[in-house]
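pinging the channel bc i need a second pair of eyes. not urgent but kinda urgent?? the chain im working w is below, pasted from the shared doc
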Amino acid sequence: ALSWMKKPNKIAEFSNYGQKEVDLFAPGVAIYSTTPENKYEAFDGTSMASPVVAGVAGFVWSYYPNLTAAELREILLESAIPIKGRQRIPGQKKKVNINTLAKTGAEINLPAALKLAETRSK
């Protein structure tokens, strides 16, 4: 599962959290996309974060097509950057360590994923 971030080390207050399900975070606030009126507009949410993760996965897989889906997932999780600092609990002012809110508490990282995929593909 994935959730979304406002900026590096800052998870959106209205993001999804979960010790059992949220594995990875990706940028998902104020992401520009096209609209039906042939314009661009900024959107928030997993609808914006999911394409970031899919793009990273596709990019890594294009260089290392022999990876299995399970291996690729493992690479994305292991190469993610841990989110630093305390995060606000949704709907509260209290801040806690990310480990209490999410399974991995890490943001996807394309360069690190490529490096790890290279070592795993040898």
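so The mean pLDDT is 86. and The chain has one domain: 2-120. — does that match what u expected or am i reading it wrong
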